[in-house]
Amino acid sequence: MCIIYYAYKDPKTPLFAKMLASILIGYAASPIDLIPDFIPIIGYLDDLIILSLGVFFLIKLIPKEIWDKNLELAENRENCFPHNNWLAGVIILFIWVTIIFIFLILLKII
Prior knowledge:
Order of helices and strands: HHHHH
Radius of gyration: 18 Å
Distance between the termini: 41 Å
Helix content: 55-70%
């Protein structure tokens, strides 16, 4: 995932490839799946197919010299993602609390 992150951050990466990279990173990091993982085999199969196809198309969309440069960067780094992104955590927490609150209102528990 580091190479996808570096390709996303690279200013020479085409816009459509950046959009696909952000979708792939978001899908891989998200706890929400199209098919939940607790369903045997199919739960993991959707992740495998979606992420594999996404990376395949991403490799085709990013020019080779940009991909190679970011691959070298990714191989030389231990951890490529930012550590302290409290704003993103707060936004995700707010969304989940809102969804739960709406669900409880619909069930007339609150």
